[in-house]
Structure formats: structure tokens, C-alpha cells
Amino acid sequence: MSNSSTFQIVIPQSGHHEPITVIKEINRLIFTGDASGKICIWNTSFDSELGFIKAHSSSITDIEWFPFSPSIITSSQGLDIRLWSWDNFSLLQSQQVHGSVVINIDFLGDYIITGGRDRLLKKWSFSEGKFHLVKQVKIPYLEEFFVFDDKILISCSDGSISIYDSDFNPLSYLTLKRNKLVSAIRKSGKYLSTYKKDPYTVIGHLEGVRGLSVTCFTFDEKFLYLGHFYGIITVWKKKDFKLSHIFVSHDKNITSIHIFKGKVVTIALDSKVAVFDIAKEKHHSYELPYRPLCLIQLKNENFVIGFDNGLIGVYDSNFNEIKKRVPVQNINCCSISPEFILIGTNNGYVKRYTIPNLEEIAHFHINSSILGIFYYDSMIAIIDSDSNLRIYEANLAFSEIKQLLIPLRKEELTLQGYNRYIVLSPNLIFDFEKMEIMKGEVSSSTKKKYSESIVYSFSFETGNIILNIDENKLNMFLEKGDYSVYPEGILRSLKKLIHNVSSPLRQIGESTWINIDILEQARKLR
Hints:
Helix content: 10-25%
Number of strands: 45
Radius of gyration: 28 Å
Number of helices: 6
């Protein structure tokens, strides 16, 4: 809320509008983080979004259960880590832990491990609600780190890979012999055309000074599985850190690696899922619609994949698509009628939400971006990027009444509504009552009256619509019976919204919006 008289309603757009960078399943809830710093919270079937957290101002790098209190901990390409209450996901604490981007967070025994682009690996304790630095070590070229058992795998941008103990002492180095890499590249040529050329030419593009940097990691009881640049996978014995297998599953960088029923499952920037059976040296790949950035397997054995356009796909174990959560559409404009809130999107959708319960009941599509939506006297005007002005009846049928071509390019439009008039440019207006586009302008006195009488406004945050209502001005207009600026039906609809719904999502502090009812239902299923 911006002041004491402003009533704020969130109209959620389910999902993300930026690349999905992290997916985690925590206590039967799914958390998805994106490149804008937004985290969405879902039930495990992805039927319902419980809410979202504006967790950070930069791309999410990690989301983890925090074992020292009932909360989750998050990091981003910022400098801090943040704790969020498990009860309602309100912000508990934010603490700067690095002087540059936080790579990720993990846990080792009773400690929290963080790494940053400042090339520092740090160990933290947590007591009395605060983080305390226990130890730190400078690691030149630090790029990624991964915790397994009581050890840490360190990958550096120079290609070196090392194993550290819990006190940050180096234990071993993973050394990959070039002849084994050459052999793996040659074998991959039979199913990856990119690798049919000379292996030494390929290696020249792959290697750092000391080897292959790691892009992703997983492990089981006996082995460490490392995904590298250009689709290369190495498998190492945990007992002595000797190389066990090396093979190639993609011809682009691997973004996630997983073990499923003895097979290595990887996704990569070639827009494919690859499944490699190590024992049989058998390779199979599946096409994906977009570039995948992260993958997890749920407890029901379904896979969830996050894509670079904000789409989330749910797949069975044979990678048949079960369902998807489409990316949030960019919203260009909003309007309100006595019965509906209407939004226009960049890809040509007009959506309607009922008043007061804010249910999306219907939408329709045109082949151009929606630039403006305006309501007047049971009619709706929609202006698109092809300079069309369409008039519709403001009902569920959306019957078109008239269509006009605006004699202006999209770049010249300056859209503003003043009751019966829509200002198209400084000297061109549309008159709802005459149903004409004509030369002229709205008087300065009318413009001043409107600017001083603004009762509601729309804003857009992380893919969601925020409706701000000035309750003092709303009550003043209703008490005076003054409907010269806003029709009575719209004012009474705003009053209904204030009295009957705060939002499908309840705002918890400054960062979190949660549907409490759906959250409780999801938790009862655990």
C-alpha cells in the first residue's frame, strides 16, 4: 500500500514471465524460481499456484529447505541470502554473504556453505536467528560448488575440478586423460552429427587450461555424475575419485543431470532430453519445445522441466508431456467495467475477471498486440498494434459493433481515456457517442479534473496485475453522488471489491502473496 487510504488488490497471473532457473520439491510443495527473482509456489500436481514471493531483484540461483528452523532459504545473483517462514513464506531475514553474485547455497553437517563470484567459499553457523561466519577460503577461478556426503566438489573456470573436506582442505583432484575424452567424442559421432569431425578440434573448443568445467552435478551411493560443456558427462568413483565412465549425450551445454533407474538423464541447450544407459552404452534423446534450464524428478516419478521462456512442463518417465504451465503474458493495458476487469496482453489476448470474486471466466484473441482497452456506456473499445479500433458490447459474448482504422502508426499513439473520449494523439480523439475518430482535443480543464480525481489505477509487478483503489476518493464520489468522472456502476464495483475480496492472494509483508486456503489444503495432503 502506498498510503493509508489506498486499497491494493493483486490479480495473479499464474506462473513466470522470465526463464526458469531453479525448480525444487520441498515438503510436498514445488518451488520454481526465475530470472526476475520471482518464486512461485505450487502443489505437486501443478493444478494450483499457492502464491508467489518477490524473493530477490535478480535471477534465483537456489532454493533450499533450511534445516535449522522451519523455513526455506534462497539465493540469487545478488549478494545476499534470505530466509522465508514456512508458515506463510514471509521474509524472516536477509543477510549479505558475498561481495559478488552468490553462486548457490548448500548444507554440510551443522553448517551452511555458500560460494560467490568473489571467489570465496564460506562456511556459516546459524544461532539465535543470525548467520555467523565460521571460515572462508579463497579459491581462484571458483565457478561452481556441490556438496555430497561430507565433502565438497569444486569446479573452476580454468577447467580444474577438486574435492575438499568439510574444513575446506583439498583432498583430491579429478584428472581426465585426453585419450579417454577423444574416445568418447568419437563414439558419440554415431548419434550426434556435431561430433563426427576431428575430436582434437572439438577438444580445442572445450577445454580450459586444466580440463572441463562442470555445469551440473548429482551423485548416488557409489558414483559422482558430472555434466560439462558441450554435452560431455563424466562418472567418478566416490571411493577413490577415479574416472569410471565418460560419454557424450548432447552437442550443447548440459544444464541439469539426474539418475533415474540406473540411467543418466540430462537436459541441455540443444532443446533435448537425453537418457544414457551406461551399462549398455545405449543413448536415446527426446525433443523439447524450448531450451530447458532445470529439471527435477518428483516423488511420483514425473519430471518437471523449466524452460528459458518461462514455461514449465510436466512429463512422465517416457518424457510424454502431461501438462504445462504457460509463461505469463506481458500485460499492456487494463480497464474496468461494472461487471469485469479486463486486461490486454502483448500477444493479443483479452481476458476478463469477474467482480467481485476475480475469476477469469473467458477470453478471446486477436492477431495483434493489445495497446489499449477502454469502457464507456456498456461498450468496450480495444486498440491494437495494427491501428485498429474495435468496439464491442461489454458482455460475455464480446459481439463486435464496429471497427475503425486509426490514421496513425503505433508509435504515434498516446492513449488516454476521458469518459466518452479516447485521446489517440494530441489532436485526434475517438468519440464513443458519435462512434467516430475526429480531429480535436480534450480540454485542459477536463484533463485537470481527471488528474485530480483518480480513484483507481493499475500497475504490473512480476507478471501480476495490481489494482490500487483510493478509498477516500471513492467514498467521496459515492457520498456526493458525483458520477461526472466515473460511472456509478464502476464506483460501486470498486466498492464491492473492497468489501468482498482483498485478493485471491493475501499479501504477507512486502514480498509475499499467498492463497492461504489453497496452502492449507496442500499441507493437509502431506
